[in-house]
Design goal:
Number of strands of chain B: 10
Shape of chain B: globular
Largest sheet of chain A: 6 strands, mixed
Strand order of the largest sheet of chain A: 6-7-8-3-9-10
Number of helices of chain B: 9
Order of helices and strands of chain B: EEEHEEHEHHHEHEHEEHH
Structural class of chain A: alpha/beta
Strand content of chain A: 15-25%
Oligomer: heterodimer
Radius of gyration of chain B: 19 Å
Strand content of chain B: 25-35%
Helix content of chain B: 25-40%
Chain lengths: 279, 265
């Protein structure tokens, strides 16, 4: 058993139409088994493309090169059928908008059931029991099994998404800004739920966010991305307390803090570019 | 007159019918005896989760929603008894900045027309003075005069929010209601917009009513704070004092759920 569940080597994502533009530019990083790795960056930094590359869900117009080793085998070399068997089964993903990721005309019970039966053959009774078990796992009353998504709040919908993601006990969960659309109190609950599930199910997480507050709460390792490249990576304490790269420093300075001691400083991109050129 | 806006005992109820055929009705108290004062030239933040009534409060303060009960005084005048003509005049002095800069700008209008529209509605100035004001304002918010000839889709989220701010300030309002103006933006852009709002406040002597669910931002912009929960004000006071010494359980819970505080508690 290797120590890393996911190893990404020299990953590049580029457009088929416009040559010469690398949207993700030669990035390499690992996700440790049982660990949470956070990718932080502004919009357009390539963090979501990186997540989609792991799931092999990139748009048709994009191509990727490099190695994505999941449990030792390269996802980029697999045929679509073997990828499909891994996706949702061994690697699961949750998204930012729980409202748009659920089908409004199907009950939540049916949608959770679907994610179980795609990968497993179970009897009717086993399926019903598993759906109830999953709802309990994400702290939703199992009696809600016949509710429709519109009858649930935003936080409850995100819990349903998490239940669906957990349905096949994935080894790796990719979470793309799962709490950005939620209220702060609900956000804190969802983060805690994910942290508990990670420990209980011995799962690893690749967590994408732009919020350093969230990073401080859940990350073991942090990757900072800027313009398609990784500018800095390391353990969370080091990145938050002793950032080295000028971009990480600048990004940390524009995060508002609850203490109100810090003076907010927007990123001065000209200054940043000069500092980056000097490295 | 110290207060630009003083609201007393505002109440607003919504009646919700349950199900398609049933006659069962439930009454929701969107605002329940809410009172607040905003001092001239300062920022008052209204904080609460979704459904706490903070947007209903903002809308009813400028009479976009009619309230059931209560008094509102704006600049010393009774705001609720104004007739429609006087109300229109008064609205010139109250402007709003919205959360979603993508949705609040008409995609078919050039920035020039977007910014001129409020001036035309209120019949302010001549064509030449309008043009001059628009040019000054667009540069003040950090964009170029050449941008006036572009359409909203040609701008990034942060730039669009700058346009929204320029449009709100073109009428030289006294009160600006900011409804989650930075929630949809990246942290780096968020910091830029907060700085811009602060410097504009100083320059034009603006008063802000700032609605948000993000307590970290409140700490950086608000002088005073109102915490809302289920249509009621649960706590109010100076921002620093509430942060250091929250009195109610709900405020304590809100402060504890600020990201980045989970591990330390």
């Amino acid at each position: 058993m290797k120590n890393n569940i996911l190893e990404i080597n020299n990953l590049k994502v580029f457009s088929k139409l416009e040559s010469g533009i690398n949207l993700v530019n030669s990035i390499s990083f690992n996700v440790g088994r049982g660990k949470t790795t956070c990718i932080v960056g502004e919009s357009g930094s390539g963090k979501s493309l990186t997540a989609l590359s792991v799931m092999q869900l990139l748009s048709q117009q994009l191509k990727l090169s490099g190695k994505i080793l999941f449990n030792g085998s390269d996802l980029c070399l697999m045929d679509s059928e073997s990828i499909r068997r891994k996706r949702g089964n061994e690697i699961a993903m949750i998204f930012q908008e729980p409202m748009t990721s659920l089908n409004p005309v199907l009950t939540i019970g049916y949608q959770i059931e679907e994610s179980i039966t795609v990968h497993n053959r179970l009897s009717r009774n086993q399926i019903n029991a598993r759906v109830k078990e999953l709802l309990t796992l994400v702290a939703i009353n199992p009696d809600r099994v016949n509710s429709y998504p519109e009858e649930l709040s935003g936080g409850q919908r995100q819990r349903i998404m998490i239940a669906m993601a957990m349905s096949c006990n994935p080894d790796l969960l990719i979470a793309d800004e799962p709490t950005t659309a939620l209220d702060v109190t609900v956000q804190a609950q969802i983060l805690e739920l994910l942290d508990q599930l990670k420990k209980k199910l011995k799962m690893s997480m690749l967590f994408i966010t732009h919020d350093f507050g969230v990073v401080a709460d859940i990350a073991d390792d942090v990757i900072v991305m800027y313009q398609g490249k990784i500018v800095e990576q390391g353990p969370v304490n080091l990145i938050l307390n002793k950032p080295k790269h000028p971009y990480t420093i600048a990004l940390l300075q524009c995060v508002p803090d609850a203490l109100g001691e810090k003076i907010l400083k927007p990123i001065d991109y000209k200054k940043l570019e000069r500092a980056m050129a000097a490295i | 007159m110290r207060y630009l806006l003083a609201a007393k005992n505002l109440s607003k109820q919504y009646i919700q019918t349950q199900g398609f055929f049933s006659r069962k009705k439930t009454v929701i108290d969107a605002l329940n005896n809410v009172s607040l004062n905003i001092t001239k030239g300062t920022t008052l933040a209204v904080v609460g989760e979704s459904g706490s009534g903070k947007s209903t409060l903002a809308r009813s303060l400028i009479r976009l929603i009619n309230i059931d009960k209560g008094e509102i005084k704006f600049d010393g005048k009774d705001f609720l008894s104004l007739d429609s003509k006087a109300l229109k005049n008064m609205r010139k002095t109250i402007q709003m900045i919205f959360q979603d800069p993508y949705a609040s700008l008409n995609p078919r209008m050039k920035i020039q027309s977007i910014m001129e529209e409020p001036l035309l509605i209120h019949k302010v100035g001549t064509k030449i003075t309008r043009q001059k004001n628009i040019s000054i304002m667009i540069e003040r918010v950090g964009l170029n005069i050449s941008d006036l000839d572009k359409y909203p889709h040609q701008f990034s989220g942060g730039q669009r929010q700058r346009i929204g701010i320029a449009r709100a300030l073109i009428l030289k309002p006294k009160l600006v209601i900011c409804d989650e103006p930075v929630s949809a933006l990246d942290v780096s852009v968020q910091a830029q917009i907060i700085q811009l709002l602060k410097s504009l406040q100083k320059e034009f002597g603006l008063t802000y009513l700032f609605i948000t669910h993000d307590l970290r931002i409140v700490r950086h912009i608000a002088d005073e704070l109102v915490v809302m929960h289920h249509g009621k004000i649960v706590e109010t006071g100076k921002t620093d004092i509430i942060f250091q010494n929250p009195k109610t359980l709900y405020t304590k819970k809100l402060l504890a759920s600020i990201p980045g505080t989970m591990k330390s508690t």
